[in-house]
C-alpha cells in the first residue's frame, strides 16, 4: 500500500517539511483588483504582499475545483486530504465532490479531513497524519486518531491589519474600525467548529501577546506531548519572540516557526501571527 497526503495551499510549509512528507498542495486562486495569483510554489510572496498593500480593492479568493483535487488524488492507494475549515471556504466541499467522482472509476481509499482551521493548523494536522503513517497505523486508525487530534487542536491569531478580514466578512466592520482606532489587538481563533471567534481584545501589541500566552495555558494541557506551530506573515522576529515567551512558560514537545504562504498571507497580512497546537 502506498500513502499520499494532499492539502490545499492554506497549509503553510517550508521546503523541508514539504519534502519530508511528500505532500501535494492544491492551490487556491487569489484576485487583487485586476491581478490574478495562483497560490503555488511559483508565487512570489514579496510581490504578492506589495500588490495587496497598494491595492484599493479587497482580495477575492477561489477554491480549488473538484478537477484540481481529482488530479491530486492520482497515485497512491490510500489518500488523506486536509482542507481549510468548511465554515470558511468551499474547498472542503470540492474535495469531497472530487472524492465521489474519483471513486466512480477506482477503488482507492480517500478520506477528507475538515481541519476546522487554516494556515499552521492545517500544517499540524498534516504532520500528525504523516506521523501516524510512519508508525504504521492502518488507514482506519489514522482517520480516528487524526479526527481526534483535530477536535482537540486550538488555533489563535493576532493581526496587525484587520482590513482583509473585514472585507471578507470575517470581522464586523464597525468593530474592526474601533479596534484599529483605539489600538486594540483582538485575539481571535477557531471556536472549535471552524468559525472565527473573538477570544479577547487587548490594548497594545505587547499586552496582546502576553495575553495570548496566558490563553494557551487556560485552554490547553499535556503540552509535553504536543507540537506548537507559529506561522508569520513577514514577521519572523515577532514569531521568534513569541516562541521564547511560550518556551519560558510551557514545555511543548517542539515549537516550529513557518512563513505564511499566499492564502494565509492574504488574510493575515504583514505582521500577522497564527498559532496552533
Task: Explain the overall architecture.
Keywords: Lipid-binding. Strand 6 (78-83), helix 4 and strand 7 (109-114) form a beta-alpha-beta unit. The mean pLDDT is 92. This protein folds into two domains: 3-28 and 63-151, Rossmann fold; 155-276, Hypothetical Protein Tm841, Chain: A,domain 3, CATH 3.30.1180.10. It has 277 residues and is α/β, with parallel strands linked by helices. The chain has a six-stranded mixed beta sheet, with helices on both faces. Helix 5 (120-134) packs antiparallel against helix 6. It has helices at residues 15-21, 45-53, 66-72, 91-102, 120-134, 139-152, 163-167, 173-181, 205-219, 236-249, 262-268; strands spanning 3-8, 24-26, 29-32, 35-38, 59-62, 78-83, 109-114, 155-158, 184-190, 196-203, 227-232, 254-259, 273-276. It contains eleven helices and 13 strands. The longest helix has 15 residues, at 120-134.
User: How many structural domains are formed by the residues?
Assistant: 2
Summarize the biggest pleated sheet. Answer: 6 strands, mixed
Share of helix, binned: 40-55%
Tell me the number of helical segments per DSSP (H or I, 4 or more residues long): 11
Oligomer: single chain
Widest β-sheet, arrangement of strands: 10-9-8-13-11-12
**CATH first level of the largest domain: which class?**
Alpha Beta
Inertia-based shape: globular
Count of strand segments? 13
| SS-based class | alpha/beta
Rg to the nearest angstrom? 18 Å
Element order: H for helix, E for strand = EHEEEHEHEHEHHEHHEEHEHEHE
Q: Report the portion of residues in β strands.
A: 15-25%
Amino acid at each position: 500500500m502506498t500513502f499520499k497526503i494532499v492539502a490545499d495551499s492554506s497549509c503553510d510549509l517550508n521546503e523541508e517539511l514539504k519534502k519530508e512528507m511528500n505532500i501535494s498542495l492544491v492551490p487556491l486562486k487569489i484576485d487583487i483588483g485586476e491581478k490574478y495569483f495562483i497560490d503555488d510554489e511559483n508565487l512570489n510572496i514579496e510581490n504578492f504582499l506589495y500588490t495587496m498593500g497598494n491595492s484599493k480593492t479587497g482580495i477575492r479568493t477561489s477554491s480549488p475545483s473538484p478537477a484540481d483535487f481529482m488530479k491530486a488524488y492520482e497515485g497512491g492507494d490510500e489518500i488523506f486530504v486536509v482542507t481549510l475549515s468548511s465554515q470558511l471556504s468551499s474547498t472542503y466541499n470540492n474535495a469531497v465532490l472530487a472524492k465521489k467522482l474519483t471513486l466512480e472509476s477506482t477503488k482507492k481509499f480517500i478520506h477528507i479531513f475538515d481541519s476546522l482551521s487554516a494556515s499552521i493548523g492545517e500544517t499540524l494536522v498534516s504532520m500528525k497524519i504523516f506521523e501516524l503513517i510512519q508508525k504504521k497505523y492502518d488507514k482506519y486508525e489514522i482517520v480516528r486518531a487524526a479526527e481526534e487530534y483535530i477536535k482537540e487542536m486550538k488555533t489563535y491569531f493576532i493581526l496587525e491589519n484587520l482590513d482583509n478580514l473585514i472585507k471578507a466578512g470575517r470581522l464586523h466592520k464597525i468593530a474592526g474600525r474601533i479596534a484599529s482606532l483605539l489600538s486594540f489587538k483582538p485575539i481571535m481563533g477557531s471556536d472549535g467548529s471552524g468559525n472565527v471567534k473573538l477570544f479577547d481584545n487587548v490594548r497594545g501589541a505587547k499586552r496582546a501577546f502576553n495575553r495570548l500566552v496566558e490563553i494557551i495555558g487556560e485552554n490547553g494541557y499535556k503540552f509535553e506531548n504536543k507540537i506548537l506551530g507559529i506561522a508569520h506573515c513577514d514577521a519572523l522576529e515577532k514569531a521568534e519572540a513569541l516562541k521564547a515567551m511560550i518556551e519560558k512558560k510551557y514545555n511543548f514537545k517542539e515549537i516550529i516557526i513557518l512563513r505564511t504562504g499566499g492564502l494565509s498571507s492574504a488574510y493575515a497580512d504583514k505582521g500577522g501571527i497564527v498559532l496552533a497546537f
